[in-house]
Amino acid sequence: MRIDLHTHSSASDGTDTPAELVLGAAAAGLDVVALTDHDTVRGHAEAIAALPEGLTLVTGAELSCRIDGVSLHMLAYLFDPDEPELARERELVRDDRVPRARIMVGKLQALGVPVEWEQVARIAGDGSVGRPHIATALVELGVVETVSDAFTPQWLANGGRAYAEKHELDPFDAIRLVKAAGGVTVFAHPLAVKRGEVVPESSIARLAAAGLDGIEVDHMDHDEPTRARLRGLARELGLLTTGSSDYHGSRKTVALGEYTTDPEIYGEITRRATGAFPVPGAGGPRPA
Q1: How far apart are CA 14 and CA 185, in angstroms?
Q2: What is the dihedral sign for C-alpha 145, 64, 6, 233?
Q3: Residue 224 CB coordination number (10 Å)
Q4: What is the DSSP pairing of strand 70-77 with strand 56-67?
Q5: Considering only Cβ atoms within 10 Å of each terminal Cβ, which end of the chain, N or C, has fewer?
């Protein structure tokens, strides 16, 4: 089995629609794909409707969190999307995205970048506006060559010159809320230092003690020594280890299925989840 547990669609900051994403996952030879858009489950219905035969969808979301002043992302899998407290927190984060993006556009303008809010809104479309949309605007303007180049201290990285904070969940609350909704939590790309300041291992240990299920190890932003370090930490703390592409369509160079999760780990995630179940595809044949 080939399993990719971290992808994004145009419901947040990916470039593929949810339907395009699941068809692309099948074409890439995946057996299981998780749709984990930022702070939203809006793309799930479209993805389920388009699921081809032989591909299973894991419903989820990537929750924006902050601990001790450091931002982190929490992957939440197979939770009940209608659980009211978790739904309310996701809505608070989403509602703060537009004001935050407008602040970052203003900071870029103050730095002499000729970016306009209308340009960012066009790029975001119906998705939940975020930094990748602003980064794409910087690429269009020729300020940076790639979206990744915009995520530096010079521009949009955590604490960067044009960075602005947003409403974010306390990760301990996130773990509690996801568990109450029957879901499973995995700390996304925990040591992705190129993105900015990362959470110390002592805080990961605290999160594990609070019920964190796993950490994402095999990821494009982790080099081999970092992956080895994380595997050792996971063994020490009793955490599951996952691998995922963090696919965003054309906004990143990584391909669907470039990093994958061990089938035994996937089985344990589904065993722990009670809020929702993986959805097997029956909508039509897999792409050739």
Answers
A1: 21
A2: positive
A3: 7
A4: antiparallel
A5: C
Residues 6+ apart with CB under 8 A from 271: none
CB atoms within 10 A of CB 279: 16
Only one residue has tokens 């994403």, namely: 21
Distance CA 60, CA 102 (A): 27
Query: What is the distance between the alpha carbons of residues 216 and 211, in angstroms, rounded to a whole number?
Result: 15
* Residue 229 CB coordination number (10 Å): 15
What is the pLDDT confidence band of residue 197, given thresholds at 50, 70 and 90? confident
What is the 3-state secondary structure of 112-169?
A: CCCCCHHHHHHHHCCCCCCHHHHHHHHHHCCCCCCHHHHCCCCCCCCCCCCCCCCCCE
Radius of gyration of the chain (CA): 18
CA angle 51, 52, 57 (to 5 degrees): 40
Q: What whole-number distance in Å separates Cα of residue 65 and Cα of residue 198? A: 12
> Looking at residue 252, what is its pLDDT?
85
What pTM was estimated for this model as a whole?
A: 0.87
Mean pLDDT for the stretch of residues 105-133: 94
- Burial of residue 189 (CB within 10 Å: 0-12, 13-18, 19+) is buried
Report yes or no: 89 and 177 within 8 Å, Cβ to Cβ.
yes
> In the predicted model, what is the mean pLDDT of the chain?
95
Assess contact for 180 and 85: CB atoms under 8 A.
Answer: yes
In DSSP terms, 58 is beta-bridged to 34
Check if the beta carbon of residue 141 is closer than 8 Å to that of residue 112.
no
Only one residue has tokens 């969808």, namely 57
Q: Note the helical H segments in the chain.
A: 18-27, 44-50, 84-95, 97-110, 117-124, 131-140, 147-150, 171-180, 201-209, 224-237, 263-272
DSSP letter at 183? -
The CA distance from 261 to 240, in Å, is 10
Q: Could you say which DSSP state residue 243 is in?
A: E
